[in-house]
Amino acid sequence: MQVIKSIDALRAALKPLARQGKTIGLVPTMGALHDGHGALIKESVKDCDVTVVSVFLNPIQFGKNEDLDKYPKRLEADAKLAESIGADFVFAPSVAEMYPEGDPLTLVRDEALECMYCGAYRPGHFRGVLTVVSKLFLISGADHAYFGEKDYQQVFLIERMVRDLNFDIKIHRVKIVREASGLALSSRNEYLNELERKQALSISEGLKTAKDLFEKGERRVALLRDCVIKSILANRGQVQYVEVVNQKDLQKFAGALPADAKVVILVAAFFGKTRLIDNIELN
Ligand code: AMP
What we know:
It is a single chain. The chain has helices spanning 7-19, 35-47, 75-85, 95-98, 118-121, 125-140, 152-165, 194-215, 221-233, and strands at 2-4, 24-29, 50-55, 89-91, 144-148, 170-174, 238-246, 263-271, 274-282. It has 283 residues and is an alpha/beta fold. The strands form 2 sheets. Strands 1-4-3-2-5-6 form a 6-stranded parallel β-sheet, with helices on both faces. Helix 6 packs across helix 7 and helix 8 (194-215) runs antiparallel to helix 9 (221-233). The termini are far apart. Bound molecules: adenosine monophosphate.
């Protein structure tokens, strides 16, 4: 496996492989890899001839007061993990390599969630994500790209972007990987102290309770939402949002769910200073 830091070198490595008819899979990450990322890499290795894992902490998707500076960085360990799963390349460009002229003047902006859910609380976040993902698609020329449902809004927006802008790439969704406790794996879990980590279980527990209620026939949106909120509040979490939305367009449901509803509950909450997101589908 090769670690490549320049765009030209990655293109020089991948273009001949593509010309030979090899399929290229891309797994975009911000590093500090864990088994959630591992699941994406595994899927790519299974489907594609060549797997590229990008490790890039993208500054333009972070707000001024967010955790860009303290985000965990460990490229060597990331490369080892990626290699152990069968990745062929780790692409780890510097910020100067990706944005040589400073902040880009051309951005890919979504109109769907700019002011909703994470979009409302992290202005400019999705725009930063879609811009860097577009760059990675164009740089790698990948045929397939893998995204986790942990970031449900993100994968929704990327699928839509690919359709809207005719990127010639197939997007694959990978289910959320959780600890045995239920906590969704996240690089940000490393910020949690022991107590916060226990309290943070209230997110997945609340979501599980909502799913159980739904499976028993509960269709009142307020009730499903409230059981998640109560679980988090009872464990000293601060709820940013909990919303019961349609899987198809991520629009909110109100009142009672229609009989054929395909639902996902989206959550963002703070434990101490750490902001966590999670979700669960109800089918
Ligand atoms: P990140 O490095 O946090 O930007 O994540 C890179 C990719 O890994 C994104 O597509 C995430 O959705 C995915 N991912 C992160 N955590 C998990 C998880 N626990 N389960 C599945 N996918 C995940």
